[in-house]
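Hi V.,

You were right to ask for the full record rather than a summary. Here it is.
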Amino acid sequence: MASSTSTTATAATRNPRKPLGFLKNAKQRKHSFIQFFAMSGILLLSVRSLGQKYRINDLLEDTTALREERDTLTSRMDEIKRGLRREASLEPSGLFAARLRSLFGDN
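Predicted structure:
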């Protein structure tokens, strides 16, 4: 029995399976850690780039919608101006038409 315990004791001293510290492990496997951190960085940049791509697409859609709304509002304002000018032209004194020309900046 004594020989089996001494064999186990010597095996434990030759191959201690205690976990290495993070820094010691990193020093031993420096290439693997550098590759891991580089790949993690590339992955994070790719995810960020993908998010920015979708944000740009959303902003382009918003820009298109805002341009359409601006065009619609411009046409409505022009129609209102035409209607007011038409009504002003029907007034015999011409004061309303003169006031509209000064408001709209017409010459």
